[in-house]
Amino acid sequence: MLAGLVDSGLASLATFAIGVYAVRALDPTVLGGYALVYQAIFLVGMIPANLVFTPAEVIAVEHPEPVRPVHLARSLPYGALFAIPAGLAVAIWIPIAPPEIPAGAITALTITGIATAIVSPIQDHVRRVLHSGGYSRDAAVVSGVQLGVAGVSIAVLHLGGFPAVWIPFGALAIANVTSFSIAVVLARLRTRGKSVERELEFGELVAAGRWLAGGAALNPATGFVSAALVSRLASAAALGYAEAARVVAQPVWVLAVGLSAVLGPRSMSAARRGERVEARKVSRVFLTVVLVTGACVLAWLGPDWPLNPMAWLMPAAFAVEGLVAASIVAQILAATIFPYRSELIGARREATYTRIELWGSIVRTAVSATARFTRAFAIPLGIVAIWVFRWFAYRRVLRGVYASEGGGPGEGKAVGA
Fold it and tell me: Helix 72-88 to helix 167-190 angle, to the nearest 10 degrees?
């Protein structure tokens, strides 16, 4: 657990450093373009992640921990088949780019965004598999390399006179390539001489992942649409302010992602066996860490006060009063869904998951369409809206999962998820 938290913290600092540089170096209008590309990267990354990588991780939990990284020998090339063309799709943001964003900035954000989109899901997958195999310390080393390289890349590119708009995603792409390469080496060292009874099959992964890809893509697709609505109905600058606030709130989300990498396989495994009690133990640990940490972040970084370092580091984030606090609350709530999503996937309810995400996306889009009146607040309000829908829908389905599965001792029929 400690190594998992270290990994999460280092990964958070790496992406946070990139975001801080973007907020400080880019004017609000260009920052709005950065926000659109960020959402596009998140969106296209769902394709390889859920068509190949997540199904491979679900299958891996059927094997003993030490041999799980053996599957990387097949999951990585399979995933790359989708990661490369998906990364090129980042260019989908160009037709809807606000007209006030300079053409040169659009070019720079697109090229560096494509590079980041190709390698990021691959790096994330290797780290998750290392956690699943019990090699969380190696995953922490990978995140440490990512942080170090990101910081050095920002400094070198900035001092080298590169235009600021090329640096955020450019530095992140360099950091991901470097750390991903080291992660693969570590995984091979750990699994030398080990083998699994059954190799991954491409058709099996895609068959299992087609529902996951649809469901998982809905959230970032809605995020992309929401960002586009804000940029059009409000302004690119309003979206820029929302992005700055999101960067301040980002540590909460990245903490949840890191914890999920450690605890997610346990949630999947528990749900797969119908062990409600075990699943609740895992979710309680997850929720406790996220809620306690989130409350501390909200109290410290939410208000604009003298002891808030973000207030002087990223003043643009606090230009709209209350926006940072709203963004932090939205990220805390959104993060609480992670263990239940893992359980739903572990129980092989991919189609149900996709239906829930579809309706939730409609709810979020409807709220985001109020941007003409709610301005930058449309972003956190939309996140809260989809959280409410997911919270009740996921738990209702999981009650049925544990009631229909024959649990272990002390479980019986589930009375609550």
Answer: 170
Cβ contact 68:129 at 8 Å: yes
Is-contact 342 350, C-beta < 8 A?
A: no
pTM of the model: 0.80
| Of 210, 184, 167, 339, nearest in space to 265 by CA | 339
Split at pLDDT 50, 70, 90, the class of 4 is low
Q: On the CB side of 218, how many CA atoms lie within 13 Å of its CA?
A: 21
Q: What is the pLDDT of residues 297-335, one digit of tens each?
A: 999 999 999 999 999 999 999 999 999 999 999 999 999
Whether pLDDT at 351 is above 90:
no
3-class state of residue 151 by DSSP: helix
Query: Which residues touch 151 (CB under 8 Å, ≥6 apart)?
Result: 14, 17
CA 257 centroid distance within chain: 6
**DSSP characters over 316-378:** GGGSSTTHHHHHHHHHHHHHTTHHHHHHHHHTT-HHHHHHHHHHHHHHHHHHHTTHHHHGGGH
Lowest mean pLDDT among 51-65, 106-120, 190-204, 370-384: 190-204
Torsion over CA: 98, 99, 100, 104 (sign) = positive
What angle separates helix 236-273 from helix 338-346, to the nearest 10 degrees?
50
Tokens of 89: 């799709």
What was the pLDDT predicted at 207? 74
Which of 257, 228, 250 is CA-nearest to residue 37?
A: 228
Helix 350-368 × helix 338-346 angle, to 10°: 150
pLDDT, one tens digit per residue, over 251-273 is 888 788 778 877 888 898 899 88
Print burial letters for 28-40: b (CB count within 10 Å at least 16), e (below 16): bbbbbbbbbbbbb
- Residue 263 burial (CB count, 10 A): 22
What pLDDT is attached to residue 306? 92
CA atoms within 13 A on the CB side of 404: 9
Q: Which two tokens stand for residue 251?
A: 């540590």
**Hey, what are 417's tokens?**
């998820």
Residue keyed to tokens 């469901």 = 215
